[in-house]
Specification:
The chain contains 1 helix and 4 strands, in the order αββββ. It has 78 residues and is α+β, with helices and mostly antiparallel strands. The protein has one domain. A hairpin with a 3-residue loop joins strand 3 and strand 4.
Length: 78
Amino acid sequence: MELNDYNTLVQRMDEASKEMKAASFAQLKYDMGHAGLGVVFSSGTGDGEYEVFATIGDVPPWGERVKKVEVILIPEDE
């Protein structure tokens, strides 16, 4: 599966939404069924657009990788 395949990701989100009924988060699963493709969670604040920041750094021996992701759900000034 291509990670940027929108239709496949929407299908994965639909599958994960069933899990979210019992919790406020769920795992997106790879084609073989194991977790780790991604996560989805409820912001608790409804629909909207959120700022997302990635920290990228060197991870030997793989080179540059995303080391941390931060999602701003409610900005500090609000």
